[in-house]
Specification:
heterodimer; A: 727 residues; alpha+beta; Alpha-Beta Plaits; Calcium-transporting ATPase, cytoplasmic transduction domain A; Rossmann fold; seven-stranded mixed sheet; six-stranded antiparallel sheet; 26 helices; B: 62 residues; mainly alpha; 53% helix
Amino acid sequence: MSAVEHPGAAACPACLASPLAGQVAERQRSAEGEEVQLSLPTIHCAACISTIEQGLLGLPDVSDVRVNLTRKRASVRVRNGMDAEALVAAVSRLGYEAQPLDAATLSAGASDRAARDLTMRLGVAGFAMMNVMLLSVAVWAGAANATRDMFHWISAAIALPTIAFAAQPFFVSAWRQLRVARLNMDVPISLAILLASAMSVWETAHHGQHAYFDAALSLTFFLLAGRVLDQRMRTVARSAATELAALEAPTALKIGPDGPLTVRLEQVGAGDLLLVQPGARIPVDGVVAEGESEIDRAFLTGETDPVAVAPGLQVRAGEVNLTGALRITAQAVGADTLLHRLADLVSVAEEAKSRYNSLADRAARIYAPAVHLLALAAFIAWFWLTGGDLRVALNVAVAVLIITCPCALGLAVPAVSTVASGRLFKRGLLVKHATALERLAEVDAVVLDKTGTLTRGTPLLQDADALPPEALAVGAALAQASNHPRSRAVAAAAQGRTLPAVNVSDIREVPGHGVQGNWNGQLVRLGRADWAGAEGSATVLRLGDGAALPLQFTDALRPGAAALIAGLKARGLPVTLLSGDTPEAVGQLAGQLGLDDWRAGVHPDDKVAAIAAMKAAGRRVLMVGDGLNDTAAMALAHVAIAPASALEATRVAADLVLVAPQIDRIDDALRIAGAARRRILENFALAAIYNAIAVPIALMGLATPLGAAIAMSSSSIMVSLNALRTR
Amino acid sequence: MLILGILIPVSLGLGALGLVAFLWTVRSDQYDDPEGDAARILRTDYDDAPAPDRPKTHAKGH
């Protein structure tokens, strides 16, 4: 994760403030201290490990530090209730960024255990395969009679327990499918492994020439290797996704008899009074009880203009409080919030996506019955030809099963997906869903959201040069006092310009309205027009009794937005921009990017309807969005991508998460997904060619264990090498 | 043929030794942080004196 995106300040105060508090609430106390997890997105080298480990160990309350460079994380054991905030401060003094992670969200146990379990089975299968292969070499070299029998018995002694242990995942999966009367790839695999072992034991007992213990084992080994790759890739993506979630633990400041107390969201009930600090995200749906402020609804509606709120007005979970502290009465919590209802919708869509037929599924559907029929035909034919020789007929049938067994097929998809996901990961994209890459390769239309997706969701002051330098200087001085995104935009515009020095005193922020101060004996105000003494709700700067200077803001483009549109056009994909923002704002951005197809003022339901209509027209839509207003549409789309700055609920609906700040990486994703699909198809073709050569040989009864071993290994290696060409 | 009676157990024993070593590396989480381990070996922190013993607290879970 070299390129973790740090969401703009607008999204971040909340995620900085709440997880800290969550840790305090959630800590497990024990005799030897407690463990705090930190995310360290900027570490990259041996020196970084040393600096952080030594630096933190130097703190009096830290008993142990372990930095994990692969996951860019540190787990720190602390004493005396030292909190994560102090650790973050210490790390930033050392020169690195750190963010506390919520321990409760991180505990990923199950998938780790599954990965370890598979690795263990792979190791055992590898050991057994090597040893049996060595013994087989002796047989192939011409060992005969008693020596051959002994070597076969030793092979059996190694192979049978190994198969019972290592091939279990295939048996379990095959049995599960058979019970519901279905065939998957694991059925022919299990059948081949079991029949090969059984026949080899029988042959050995009857002093036969051919035993397939090595084939059964290498089959198990190669197929397990495919499984391990698959599992590993998913674990990496999942752990990165849970880390994103752990950065923003769901907590709220509940006002109790002893003042505000941080609690986890589950502990908030309807009717509770909550405190929402400026910069924090509103945790539940509710009504403002006290305080005035402005809130940013961009995540819910896509509007970039902040909305003023006062007591009695409704607020929704997910909105960001900008200027003043608010006390809100919780109305809907947990399952009743809009946010949660959206999550339900997402899980319905997830189910639809899990029914997607991947290339591997489609291959298995043709392949599994074909193999069984072929083996059966071989058995019947040879039984008839040899006049009822069961042993020969069974030998040929098993040879056919082993030769056709999908070693290459089992590796074809996981090897390519692993390589492709790895390449995307390096470019800052997390592949969350197993079939996401395949679906991405099929996309033939793109729908984009505006606010927070094509733009950063943070305003930029327009025409700063048109303002009198003195006014801009005063405005910047006032703006320093506020965390409002527009104030920050004014302050940012003043930076890097040479402005006259001004002395503004008595600066005070009026929540929900703006900032005021005293400059040369005059009252100066930066804020809402109706408050500063002008018409409308725009933002103005007013110096004394002079005319109010209107300030225009635009939404800053995300880096790479223009390149993305150009890239999509070059691919010939139709691009639609759907935004909940005003027509002016959307039209201006569309003009800037050269987009003709755009719609403004789109409600979440309209977005869903738009996607559904495109779907009905046979389009496979890629939806890129970040807001809750996009979530339902994303769940419906063929494949969805969300930036890391999106809300958790939206990221859950997405198949890929864009961690890098550059949005044109989506173009890379499309290219890599296309390449991956081509490689998978090529691998299937390779496997088919190999079968076309090997199956007739097996059907003629000419296959030997040596031939099977050579063919199996070479086809697996060829498929893996081809997968490495994905880029 | 007597030689087989010695060499086969020897080769199996060596293989089993490798297997046990592999299982140990899996169990003690040595595949948890490959990048970190590659980087750690280049540090000079403990060139002069060995690292003090760590409390065994991070072994499981992450």
